[in-house]
Amino acid sequence: MSYAIETDSLTKKFPAAKSYHDIILHPFRRKEITVLNNVNIQVKKGDVFGLLGPNGAGKTTLIKILCTLILPSSGKAFINGLEVAGNAKTTRKTIGYVVSDERSFYWRLTGIQNLKFFAKLNNIPDREAGKRIGRLLDFMDLTEDAGRPFKDYSSGMRQKLAIARGLLTDPEVIFMDEPTNRLDPVTSQNLKTIIKEKLAGDGKKTVVFATHILRDAEEICNGLAIIHKGEVKFAGALGDLKMDPDTCKTFIARLKRPEGNILQKIGLMPHVKKIKSVSNGTFSTVPQVDVEIAAHEGSVSGAIREIVNMGGELCSLHEKGAALEELFSRIVGAK
Questions:
Q1: Which residues, in sequence order, are bridge partners of residue 291?
Q2: How far is Cα 86 from Cα 144, in angstroms, rounded to an integer?
Q3: Helix axes 126-139, 111-121, angle to 10 degrees
Q4: Do residues 275 and 267 lie in contact, with contact meaning Cβ atoms separated by under 8 Å?
Q5: φ and ψ at 2, to 5 degrees?
Q6: Which of 199, 237, 244 is closest to 218 using CA atoms?
Q7: pTM of whole model > 0.85?
Q8: What average pLDDT values come out for the chain (335 residues) when binned by 10 residues?
Q9: Torsional sign, CA 40, 227, 208, 96
Q10: Which end of the chain is more exposed for a tag (fewer CB within 10 A), N or C?
Q11: Rounded Cα–Cα distance for residues 142 and 129 (Å)
Q12: Contacts of 48 (CB under 8 A, 6+ apart)
């Protein structure tokens, strides 16, 4: 299969500051910090791929290597089959890089003036640049605000303009580094819709979306890589992660709300994780509760039997889908 992005044992080390003790005793010994260690990922064409990890995990360094901004210490990276390190000029014509750093824009220039300036830097002819900028402003719903100074833009508008700038060269692959950072919930949701429906959907573009916000990755990504301390702990489809046999499953037992002190006894059972009341809506007037039971060997059937023997009345039983937060914590916390 031909991948839009592929890495092979990609490693990046940076020089580390040496103490006076090391300088005196070992003046010629190199001291390095490993930021990426044998990273292997594969991204299908047209996917929204999440780079997920805490701050400092190595996500930005990986993106900068793929965008030809820094060289790897060892290993290889490929964009559309071309090795990045040996084909930097060709690679740059096929990629776009969206950063959330507002300082990279000229605040006194208008939105359209900023885009014209960056089009010049990308050697796009004036006539073609005008057409592309018009389409992008319309695409990002910025046409009415194109003549306003960048300093007067809201955070959401600035992020939209950053995406428009990243699309100036009509790239096949777009890299986005923390694009929803500092955005309010409504603007963040609108931006995710643009990424999923307009860029990947209508535009058929491959999007790499680096974030530490788990909900964002779960909402829009087809595949993801979880990076922790420079190492890939998981790479693949989100569905594969949730089907991991090592993941402890949880079942939800819905009960008619018991009377007396039965709920207190249920809460003390060893495999019961949580008890919460259920909002019945218009479908039932009978108070109900959900009991979360960790599915260790025999625990669910044993717990249900014990609850029924206590006098609990079971309404339903179903498996709870694993939340990405739980899976992420398990993977990152693993030694």
A1: 253, 275
A2: 42
A3: 130
A4: yes
A5: -90, 125
A6: 237
A7: no
A8: 89 84 75 91 93 88 94 94 91 88 88 96 93 93 94 90 91 90 81 88 90 83 90 83 59 78 83 76 63 74 85 79 66 62
A9: negative
A10: C
A11: 16
A12: 195, 196, 200, 207, 209, 220, 221, 222
Residue partners of 120: CB distance under 8 A and separation at least 6: 129
The residues spanned by each domain of the chain are 5-240, 250-333
Question: What residues have CB less than 8 Å from 125, skipping those under 6 apart?
Answer: none
Task: Answer positive or negative: Cα dihedral of 53, 192, 4, 129.
Answer: negative
Q: Which fold has domain 5-240?
A: Rossmann fold (3.40.50)
Q: Which residues partner with 79 through β-bridges?
A: 5, 82
- In this structure, what token pair is assigned to residue 189? 């949701």
What are the phi and psi torsion angles at 26 (to 5°)?
A: -135, 65
Please give the Cα distance from 3 to 1 (Å, whole number).
6
Per CATH, 5-240 and 250-333 having the same topology is answered no
The pair of structure tokens assigned to 280 is: 């019945």
Q: Could you tell me the two tokens for 115?
A: 């885009």
Reduced to 3 states, what is the DSSP secondary structure of residue 224? strand
d(CA 137, CA 210): 24
